[in-house]
Structure formats: structure tokens, C-alpha cells
Design goal:
The structure is a homodimer.
Chain A: H1 2-14, H2 32-38, H3 42-52, H4 62-77, E1 81-90, E2 93-102, E3 108-109, H5 121-124, E4 134-135, E5 140-148, H6 154-162, E6 171-175, H7 183-190, E7 195-199, E8 227-228, E9 266-269, H8 271-279, E10 306-314, E11 317-327, E12 332-342, H9 350-372, E13 379-386, H10 394-402, H11 404-410, E14 411-416, E15 423-429, H12 434-441, H13 453-466, H14 473-486, H15 505-511, E16 515-522, H16 537-544, H17 549-567, H18 576-608, H19 611-615, H20 637-660, H21 666-677, E17 700-702, E18 710-712, H22 714-721, H23 725-753
Parallel strand pairs in A: 4-8, 5-6, 6-7, 7-9, 12-13, 12-14, 14-16
Antiparallel strand pairs in A: 1-11, 2-3, 2-10, 5-10, 11-13, 15-16, 17-18
Chain lengths: 756, 756
């Protein structure tokens, strides 16, 4: 067995890729994965989804609790040691709400309920769906003119300023897209708006994409997107208990004290209703990129007729139910391989989250099956079905916070899913697991293309570079680099960095547990019913993964990750890819600072020369942009030195691993594991990020102004973007320090491997 | 007087800008331009537009001829020696036409007439407007499934190939935009389509931009864009008489022999009708960039119900009427300053072309006035009101061809306009006139911004670089360079190169007469009624140039150009800007070849690796792209040497001009003029461009696949783009040869200036 690993390791070195855990490696039974696959049943997953998606299952709904209990029973049936862990969290529910247009040509009131659709379970479900609602909006009763703010992101407010339009005292209407939902009302409030309406434009989410449900997969005019608007960029989890588990006796903030609960009322509506509101807007015609696909002239407003927006909620604490299932490791019970997916949805939640949840259950079934056949994981496996992800990652965050110290001691990695559909493998996460991911992707076949899911992913990466989704030169350059890497079979295909938006956040960003998020997608049609009552089993079966084919592929993919990570007694990290990626990030930071410096200079000269004023159309309101701060020199020397060192340490570690890991004594192995298991925690020093110290990871974070989208080396990157240049210099040093600590560990581990 | 010029020349040298003709220079009365301005009357131009736009005035309409006769009378009143020159040209007119959807849910027939609008002259005009029509389409009666081809440009057909959709035997429907109208049916026919429908999408041309007429300026659902679909990229003018004037006895091709007349039927429709046709399409959903703003799911087709398209025309020769007005030069009668604008429109044609035409008339009035006051131009001035521009630049081209030899001997420059509206000065043309243009722009004030029109243009150029209209990196880079230049007051602001689409084409591209096209625009709202019956005096007065303010600015701008060019006995070219621009073009060519080479390599490897196939969605039809040809090394040495030499020669010439032009003897001045008057003809060797030798200019041409858009150094650029690499090498040499001939002239002229 050791010989086998040595052979594999040697071949990996030949391919220049360093350490990895492959099928059958490290003493694992080579037939194990085949046996695992053999029991994966698409029809079973379909049946389970039908059960779990039979009623609305948002937090505090009866069916949400019932699902947790049903899953608990399932885990026990599969032979797992399972229990439900409860937390008490702030979770408002709507009591009353209104969106109406006053003084328009005819009276108009928005429909804040979605009609059932005949022939779909959403029509027959006994429990009523949650009406239009944005979790943790601020309640209120406001009447004001309306202003259209496009996607309601930072750049949109800059454009408004150039148009001479102010949202102070107004209600804004923003369309979904371009950034996380929660940023829209937050930025609106920051700019003085008194209310916020968010709608789904058919260009982004409706007939623009395809026929609407039930004729096609897309959002019908009456469909709207529920969701949370908690300020997740400050901290995740229960708004009242930042940093600690929301147990019964936890010390709590009041709702008013909580900095993450919005202060203004906000509601989502469908484009059927939005059309009426948007058509009532006067003022300037919007810039071209602000137009949607409604058959109207999009104007910025303000509207002459006023809009009345009222939301009233019930704000008591509610109980949430995390299901925790444990399969104890035979050799390393105190090393945990964690794997989770949430079970709460907004309505029936078939695609989101149950398509990920039933794959998780299917894996649990097969792991139980293998255990019954006599297989035992070396490491402990913990399967987690989270509650309350939708309102703001509450189930996972409260659990991670409640068990933080233990997780820092024991967690090897956390694998997350949160929905799945037909298409391409998409993995994001810690780059020291990139090689681990590649090894798995090499061993799973894609049912459509008949190549491996890894090779299909490579093809996808190469296609993306050919027609980039963004014109941002830095994105275009990154895609091109990634395509080059993906085209080289001797290299691993790159995985993306994690931002936020699902349950990995507390693990990777708060605790420093390396994490992966896994999904198939891009060929299904999930977008159109996202967070609506039309996210049903029927919709999923017709449009997202007919035959539950990619559900099986997902279970096989994540199953392999769990089998390999839990079946080994060696570290799962490979260091080179992480080091190379860090070098890329530092290059990006330098480029960012240079571009920003040039932009500030150009704009400064344009302001001096009155270029904005001279070129403005005097028949329209307009304003100068806010002057950009001049960008001082930023000291990248420490980061340059740290990445240079990291590359050297990474190569030394990977080489030593390949040469010696297989023949290591048990004692040295233990020391090696001890060093490497928590190596990613070197990236999460206590200081955390500027403004938001809950986020401790200096390499990966959700953007303060993107929400879902990752910002890498965020202490530096966002400081440059946000003109906090002192922070930029300070965090350049701190980030370099974190990388040096990572290198220290690698050096120590390499010494152990070298027998020193 | 000579002293004055010497002083001005010296100050110009100090500013580093070389030779120019400024107000009051070269013996001109400094008060002349003030007196010219003083008589410019906005209300008079408004009255004249009302008269000329009172009835439809397309070629062969009674009012078109009446306008020519009315203008002739006007010129004579103004004191000019004027006459009408006639040509006999092919000009079909519609007899019968149909667009209908067969076998749809309900019978549908497109409306091919535009409704009158109450309160607008278009409602009261006695003559009926031309129905929906595309001049020089091919007639026919076809019934076939419909395919949507987006803008119907080359890239769209590449995308169709990737979608696995073929237009062979189909009727295509293309939307207006992204390239010249005439390319759409031509490319459709090239790909085997049997008919072509072109419509105006509201995203590009309708409510997407603003409210529709009469509530706002934009195209109403029933409005459509008429226009020519002759293959103007092969040669301009009468389809039957390429290269020669279409006089009564000219040798003619038959219609069937003419390579520029389309072989398939084609018609334009409005978006009200297009919606029905597009909604009938099945097949794949289109790529995102193909979507318009109709409230439908855009699909590529083919349609299950068939479309019936029928066009029948009357194909006889028609007479066209060019008005030619001459004011003889007092000293240099055989040096001609030409200035033109067409008078034919598609219906009333208020904006296009009459907004340019009435400014031309106003200039002619004031030149006549000045002459009556005793002023005399040194050079002869020729004012030209062209007929038949709309069908394909016929009036100007036939006249230029008929008088080609004389024009090559006598023409100093040709100044064109073709419509005007509120906004920014926009000049395109020969770069050796860039400095001349800048001097004029420095002396005209912008009524809105209260800076000069030149400074406002500079502001506009700088704004364009801030938010580029295209994401093409080469365009972005060019805009950035131009903005840098525009920000430097010691440099001239850059003018763009001329492509085609108006009457300058025969002059600059066929004869080598340097040319300028001048317009104000970008703040008016002309697009929405372009080539429709709603292009009326009412529309123009309300939306395009209320108060005819910019009409006056245009007359003052072009008036100055004419006064300065005709009032001087010195060359009007400055060489440095031309040389610098040529260097930019050569850099672009190198970059183009490099990018193309890299793209071919990347794509080649992707085809080998089956990346397109592996990444395709198997539930949708799809196809591989056509393999790009590998790009061989292209020899730019001759071009590099030629531009190096050109820079040296240009600097030497401009320096010598600044130092000595003012004190030159009459004899030397005559030799200098002789050399410089025809210097631009060194760029138009007899060989002409590949595929289309009518286009002789090796520096400026309309793109074979853009139509309006310029391609600079087209012999090389298009050869690289179109993978004709032998041509690329050959034309690199020929273009270098042309530049060397230009340098030869500069050297000779510099020698004359130096007294050698």
C-alpha cells in the first residue's frame, strides 16, 4: 500500500503537480469508490426531493422543522450517530405590507403574493408561501417619490450623481443583479433613501432569458425573489449574537443595536408590477446600460406620483434546527471531515437548497452502506444539514461559532453544496485544496460529453476566456491566464476563490477551516425561479436536471472528496497551487493601485479643466463626480518577499511530501498532520479585516460592495478600492505576515517530511 | 500683411503646431469672418427648411426636382454663377410589396406605410411618402421559414454557425445597427438566404431611447427606416456606370451585370410588425447580446410558420439634378474649394439632408453678400447641392467621375455636410487638414458651454475615453491616446478618418481630393426618425435643434473653412499631424496581426482539443467554428521605414513653411501650391484596393464589412482581418510606396520653401 502511494506520488511529481489523494491511494480500497457509485440512485433523490419540497419550508414554518426531523430519522436509518442542535435566532416574519402608487392615472397596488400554477405542487401545497418579503429589512411606513437606481450598486450612485439626481428622502427601485441583494437597500439608506423596492427585470430574470413558467423555465411576471437583506458583509449569522453561538442563554444585542439589521423598509416585487411603477417615472432617460427589457422608456425619476411602501413584521426569536450526523473515524476520531448543505428554503425550495440536500443524503446513505459492508473512515465524518441559511447563514454560523474552539482543533476541511443542476463542475475554495479537487474531477465522468468532469471544466474555462462575461481588463486577463492553465493537462485547472452566499462562510472566513463549495450548473434553468414559489420539484425535474442525472454526478463527486479526505491519514493540502495563486493576487493588487492612481490623475485633470461641466448637456440636470483621492505609493515589498518565500517553501514541501510522505513513521505522520491540519488558520489572525473583524481571513472574503463576489487579499484590495490607503499599507504588511506564517508551517512540515 | 502672417506662423511654431490658416491671416480682412457671422440667420434657415421639407423629396419625386430649381434660383439671387447638371441613373421605385406570416395563429400582414401624425406636416403633405423600401434590393417573391440574425453582420453569422443554425433557403430578419444597412442583405445572400427583412428594434431605435414621436423624439412602432442596400463598398454612384459619369450616352452595364445590385428581395419594417414575426420564431434562445427590447423571448428560429416576402419594382433610368454654383477666384480661378450637401431625402428629409442643406445655402448667401460688399475669394468656390445621395451617393459620384480629370487638376479640398443637430463639433477627414480644422474650431464659440467649439470637442473626446462606446481593447487604447492629445492645449485635437455614407466618398477615396465632413451632434434626437416620414420640420424644430441655434454654428464653422481656404494663396495642409496619425495606424496594424495570430493559435488548439464540442450543451444544436488561418509573419519593414521618413519630411516641411511661407515670391508660391494642392493624390495610386479598385485611397476607405465605418490603411488592415495574407504583404509595400510618394512631395515643397 505504501508502495502504491509512493508510485502515485512519483507520477504526480513527474506531472509537476505535487501531492494529492487519489482513488485507491493511502491504503484505500481501490474498489471503494466504484461501490459508492453503484448505490447512488437518481430516482431516490427525486423521491426525497418530492417529500422535502412538498410544503413551504422557510425558517419557523412547520415543514422546515418536519424536514429536519425526517432527515434525522434518515441519518439514523443510514447508521449515523445523529442529533438535532437548536439555536434561538432573530427571525422576523411579515405581518402586513403594501406597495402602491398614489396619484397615478389609476390606483395601483402591487400584488405581493405569487399565484399558484396549475399542475405544479406549488398550487396544491397546504401551507401558504411567505409573501413578498426581505428578511431583516427595517419595517416602516413611507410615502415618497420614486427613483430608479439600476442595480443599486456603488457605480450606479456615482452615475446618479453625474445625472444630478439625489435619492435623499425618496424611495428607490432597484433591479436584481450585479451584486448581492442586501447591498441595494443598504446603499440606498446610506444615500438617504427612506425605502427600497427590488424587482426582477425580464432582461435579467424573466422572458429575456427564455419562456416563462410554466411554458418555460423563467420567472413569470408575478414571480418575485424573496431573500435576506441583512448586512452579511459585516458578519454572518444571527444578527443579535455576532461571534458567539445563539444558544438560549447567549448574550444578545437588541434589534436596534444590531448593526446588520436594515433601518428602512424594503420589499421585492415582480416585473408585472414593476412595469407600472417604472412607467410612472419622469426625469432623464437612463444610461444605456441601465435599461432592462420592459417595453417602456426607462427613466431615472423622480416620479411625480408618490409611492407608498409599508412593511410591518413580527420580530420575536425563533428556533432553528441543524441536523448533525457523525461517523466516527477509526484511527483519527479527532480529525473531522465536514460536509454540509442547508435545508431551509424560501418556499418549497426544490432547487435551492434541496437539490444539494438530497445529494448530501444520498452520499450519507452510501457512506452508511459502505460502513455496513465493513469500511471505516480513518477520520471522523460529520454531515450537517443546516437550518436558516437563507436569512443569513444562521444555522452554519451559529454552529461554527458555538463549536469554534473545537473546530479549530479538529476540522480538516468543510465541503459545502447549496443546489445543483445540469452542466459543468464548478468548485470554489481554498487553493491549497485545488490539487485535491483536480484529482477527484479526474475520476468522475460527465454524462453529456463523455469526458471527465475535470476535462469538461477545462473546456468551459477555455470557452469563458474566448467570450468573457465582463469587459473589465483585469477580469479578461485573469480568464486568459486561467484558460492557458486549463489548456495544459500537466497543470491543475484553477478553482475560484470563495466570497459568500452560502454556509462555508463561517468556516473559511471566520475560523480558517479550509473549505470547498461544489456544484454543477450552467446548463439548467434555475435562475428564473430563484427564491420564488415556483422553485418546485416539477420545475426542477423539467428544467434543471431532468432525470436527476447531475444529482448523481454531484453525489459521486462530493462522495469521493469525503471518502478520500476521511480515508487518508495524510494532509490533504498541496502548497504550490496556493503559492502560485497568491502571486497572481499580489500582481493584481499592484495593477489595481496603478490603474487607480492613473484614474485619479486623469479625473483630477478633467475636473480642473471643467471637462464634465463643459461636456454636459445644459438641458439636463448633471453634476461633477466626487474627486478621487490621489493614490500614494503603496509598499508591496513585504508582500513580494512573502510570496517569493511562499513559492520556495511550497515547492520544498510538495517535493518532500512526494518523496517521503508514503514512508513516514506514524509519529512523524502525526506531527505532519498536526502542522498541516490547521495551516489555513495562519491566514486568519485575530485582527481580522478592517471595519469587519468577524472576517478573519486575510486572503478570502466576500466584498463589502459585492456581497457574494470574493475579494482576495481583501485587507489590501478593498482598502485600495475604497481609498483607505493607510489601511492598504497596514494590511499589505499583515497579509504578508499571514503568508509568512503559512510558509513557516510549510517549512516545519517539510522538515518533518525530510526526517529532520 | 506678410508681416502679420510671419508673426502668426512664428507663434504657431512656438506652439509646436506648424502651418495653419487663421482668421485674418494671409492678407485676409480680419473683420471678414465677423461680417460673415453677422448675417447668419437662424430663422431664415428654419423658413428654408420648411419650404424644402414641405413634400417628399426622394429621387424622381416632383418635389426633389422642385427643390433643385428653387435652390438654383436662390444661388442666382445670391449672386452666384449657377446651373443644374443632370445625370441618368438606375433608380428603381416600388410597384408592389408584401411581408406576411403564413400559418401563424392568426393571419398577419405587415403595414408597409407609415401613418401620418396629427399636427405634423407629414400628415398634410400632398405627395404620398415612398412606402417601406430598400433601394437596389433585388425583387422577388419568396416564401420560407424565418431566421433571426441579430444585426446580420459577419460576427453574427459566426455565432449562428456555433449555434448550428443555417440560413440557406431561409428569409432572415436582421435588426438595424452595428454596421451599414446594405451589408445585411448582402451577407444574408452570401450565406444562401432567399430574402431579408430589416427592422428597427426599440432597444436601438425606439422607446428604449426615449418617448416615441409625437410624445418624444423616437421612432414609433409603425416607423421604419428606408435606405439603400446597393453594395457601396465595391463602388459608389450609379450601379450601371462605375468609374464614369452617368451622362446620357455613357456606356452602361445592365441591371443584371451590375455587381452592386442585390440579388434577393429585401424590405424594412417597424418594430410593431417585427414583434409578431420575432414572436413566431422557435429554436434556441439567442445569445444575450442579440436581445432587443421587445417584450418577448428572442429566439434564433427557424420559424415553423413561413414568411412570404414579395417586392416588385420599376427599374427604369431616372434623371437626377445636381445644383452647381460657382464664385470665381480673383487670383487662382483654377484652384477650387468645393463644398457640398445633398438635397434628396427619403421622405420630407428635414434633418437628413436639409439641416445641412439650409446651412450651406445660408453660407452661400453670406459669401454672396460679402462679394457684393467687395470681397473676392482668391480661389474659386464651388457650392454643390447633390441629388441622389440616399440611393448611393449618386449625384456627387457621377459629378466627380464626369469631372474627374479636371478635379484632379484643380480641387483644393472638398467640405461635406449631411445633416446637423444640437451638440458637439464632429469633423472627420484627411489628417493633413487636422490643423486647419483646429484653427477654425478655435474661432467659433459654442452657444451652450460658452467655450469654443474646439474646446468643447476636446472635452467630449476626454469624456469618450472615460466611458468608451466599445470594449474592443484597440478602440479603448485609441480613445485613451486621443484623450491625452485632446487634454494638451499645445496639440491639435484629433479628427477621425472618413469611411463612407456621404458625398465625400468619390472625392477622397476615388480621386484623392482631401476632404472633410462636418457636423454638430450628439445632443439632438435625430436617430429615431432617420429615413422615416417623421423626419419633418416639426420634429427637427422640437427635438434636434430648437431655435436652429446649431444650424447657425454650422454655417459659421464651414463658412470659416471656405473663407480661409479660398482667401489664401498658400497650401492648406499641415504635415505633422498626418505623419503622426500614419504612425498610429501602422502600430495598430502590427497589433492586429499579433492579436489575430494569437487568436488563430488559441482557436487551433481548442479545435484540436475538441473544446467547442465538449463544452456544448448536447440538448441544443451547435457547431464548431471555422478554423482561423495561421497568421504568417507580415513584413512591416517598408511601412516602418516609410513612416519614419514621413515624420522627418513632415517636420522639415512644416518648419520650412512656418519660417518662409510668408515671404515667398509669387513664383515660388505657385510652385509650392502646385506641389501641395495634389499631394493627397499620392495616396490614391491607380492600382486601388484589393477586390474593389474603384477605391484608390490606400489610407482611407469604408470597411468592406462595416460599410460606414472607416478602415485605415485598408489594403493591409482588411487583408489581415480577412486572412488574405498575400494581399497584406503586397499592400504593406504599396501603402509604404504611397507614403513615400507623399514624403517626396513634402521634400520638394520644403525645398521650394527653403529657396532651393
Amino acid at each position: 500500500m505504501n508502495r502504491l502511494l509512493a508510485l502515485i506520488a512519483a507520477s504526480l511529481v513527474a506531472a509537476g503537480t505535487g501531492a494529492a489523494l487519489s482513488a485507491g491511494a493511502d491504503g484505500m480500497d481501490p474498489s471503494l469508490e466504484q461501490r459508492f457509485d453503484a448505490g447512488i440512485s437518481s430516482s431516490e433523490m427525486s423521491d426525497w426531493m418530492k417529500i422535502m419540497a412538498s410544503e413551504p419550508n422557510h425558517v419557523s414554518s412547520p415543514h422546515d422543522k418536519a424536514n429536519a426531523e425526517w432527515e434525522l430519522k434518515k441519518f439514523k436509518e443510514f447508521g449515523w450517530d445523529a442529533h438535532i442542535e437548536e439555536f434561538q435566532v432573530l427571525y422576523p416574519t411579515p405581518l402586513a405590507e403594501t406597495v402602491e402608487l398614489l396619484g397615478g392615472k389609476k390606483p395601483f397596488k402591487a400584488t405581493l403574493q405569487e399565484k399558484p400554477i396549475k399542475g405544479d405542487t406549488s398550487a396544491t401545497a397546504k401551507d401558504k408561501p411567505l409573501p413578498a418579503y426581505l428578511e431583516y429589512q427595517g419595517d416602516g411606513d413611507v410615502t415618497a417619490p420614486l427613483v430608479y437606481v439600476n442595480y443599486g450598486m456603488q457605480d450606479d450612485y456615482k452615475a446618479l450623481q453625474r445625472m444630478g439626481v439625489d435619492v435623499k428622502g425618496k424611495i428607490v427601485i432597484a433591479r436584481y443583479g450585479a451584486g448581492w441583494r442586501g447591498l441595494k437597500p443598504r446603499l440606498a439608506a446610506d444615500h438617504g433613501a427612506v425605502g427600497c423596492i427590488i424587482y426582477s427585470d425580464p432582461a435579467d430574470d424573466g422572458y429575456g432569458h427564455d419562456a416563462t413558467y410554466p411554458q418555460g423555465p423563467e420567472r413569470p411576471p408575478q414571480g418575485f425573489q424573496r431573500g435576506s437583506v441583512v448586512d452579511m458583509t459585516l458578519y454572518a449569522g444571527d444578527p443579535l449574537t455576532p461571534g458567539v453561538g445563539a444558544t438560549k442563554d447567549a448574550k444578545r444585542l437588541t434589534r436596534e443595536e444590531s448593526p446588520v439589521v436594515l433601518k428602512i423598509p424594503a420589499l421585492p416585487i415582480g416585473y408585472g408590477d414593476a412595469k407600472v411603477l417604472l412607467a410612472a417615472l419622469g426625469g432623464q432617460v437612463v444610461p444605456e446600460s441601465w435599461r432592462g427589457q420592459l417595453p417602456i422608456t426607462y427613466r431615472v425619476g423622480p416620479s411625480a406620483p408618490k409611492v407608498h411602501l409599508m412593511v410591518k413584521s413580527e420580530w420575536s426569536l425563533k428556533t432553528i434546527y441543524d441536523v448533525v450526523a457523525v461517523m466516527k473515524g477509526s484511527e483519527l476520531p479527532d480529525e473531522w471531515v465536514l460536509r454540509g448543505n442547508h435545508h431551509d428554503g424560501w418556499v418549497e425550495g426544490a432547487a435551492d437548497p434541496l437539490s444539494g440536500q438530497v445529494a448530501l443524503l444520498e452520499e450519507a446513505k452510501m457512506l452508511g452502506e459502505l460502513a455496513k459492508q465493513g469500511w471505516k473512515p480513518k477520520r471522523t465524518i460529520v454531515y450537517l444539514s443546516w437550518d436558516a441559511e437563507e436569512p443569513g447563514l444562521l444555522g452554519s454560523t451559529e454552529w461554527a461559532e458555538a463549536h469554534g474552539d473545537e473546530l479549530k482543533q479538529k476540522a480538516v476541511l468543510y465541503i459545502n453544496t447549496d443546489g445543483n443542476e445540469r452542466g459543468f463542475l464548478d468548485v470554489a475554495g481554498s487553493h491549497d485544496l485545488e490539487h485535491f479537487v483536480n484529482a477527484v474531477a479526474r475520476d468522475v465522468n460527465d454524462p453529456e460529453s463523455r469526458v471527465t468532469v475535470g476535462d469538461r471544466r477545462r473546456a468551459k474555462i477555455r470557452m469563458e476566456a474566448l467570450s468573457p462575461s465582463s469587459h473589465d481588463p483585469s477580469v479578461v486577463a485573469r480568464l486568459k491566464d486561467q484558460a492557458k492553465t486549463a489548456a495544459d493537462p500537466s497543470k491543475d485547472f484553477p478553482i475560484d476563490a470563495l466570497g459568500s452566499g452560502s454556509d462555508y462562510s463561517a468556516f473559511i472566513e471566520h475560523l480558517g477551516v479550509p473549505a470547498l463549495n461544489v456544484a454543477y450548473g450552467d446548463e439548467g434553468e434555475n435562475g428564473g425561479i430563484y427564491h420564488s414559489r415556483y422553485d418546485t420539484w416539477e420545475h426542477y425535474s423539467r428544467f434543471e436536471d431532468p432525470g436527476f442525472v447531475y444529482e448523481a454526478v454531484l453525489a459521486k463527486t462530493v462522495g469521493r472528496m469525503v471518502l478520500r479526505a476521511s480515508g487518508s491519514d495524510l494532509p490533504i493540502q498541496q502548497a504550490w497551487n496556493f503559492a502560485a495563486t497568491m502571486c497572481t493576487y499580489v500582481s493584481e493588487l499592484k495593477k489595481l493601485a496603478d490603474n487607480k492612481r492613473e484614474a485619479a490623475q486623469t479625473q483630477g485633470k478633467m475636473l480642473t479643466d471643467r471637462v464634465f461641466e463643459i461636456s454636459a448637456d445644459p438641458t439636463k440636470s448633471h453634476g461633477d463626480p466626487t474627486a478621487l483621492k490621489p493614490v500614494p505609493a503603496i509598499d508591496f515589498k513585504a508582500l513580494d518577499a512573502a510570496t517569493d518565500r511562499l513559492k520556495a517553501s511550497a515547492k520544498a514541501y510538495d517535493d518532500a511530501f512526494a518523496a517521503n510522505a508514503a514512508s513516514l513513521s506514524a509519529d512523524r505522520k502525526a506531527r505532519l498532520r498536526e502542522l498541516m491540519r490547521s495551516i489555513d488558520q495562519t491566514l486568519t489572525p485575530e485582527v481580522g479585516l478592517p471595519v469587519r473583524p468577524w472576517f478573519k481571513n486575510l486572503i478570502y472574503a466576500p466584498g463589502r460592495f459585492t456581497g457574494y463576489g470574493a475579494k482576495t487579499m481583501p485587507g489590501v484590495r478593498e482598502a485600495i478600492e475604497e481609498e483607505r490607503f493607510d489601511d492598504a499599507n497596514r494590511y499589505a504588511g499583515l497579509t504578508a505576515g499571514a503568508l509568512n506564517a503559512y510558509s513557516d508551517r510549510l517549512d516545519q512540515a517539510a522538515a518533518v517530511l525530510a526526517g529532520k
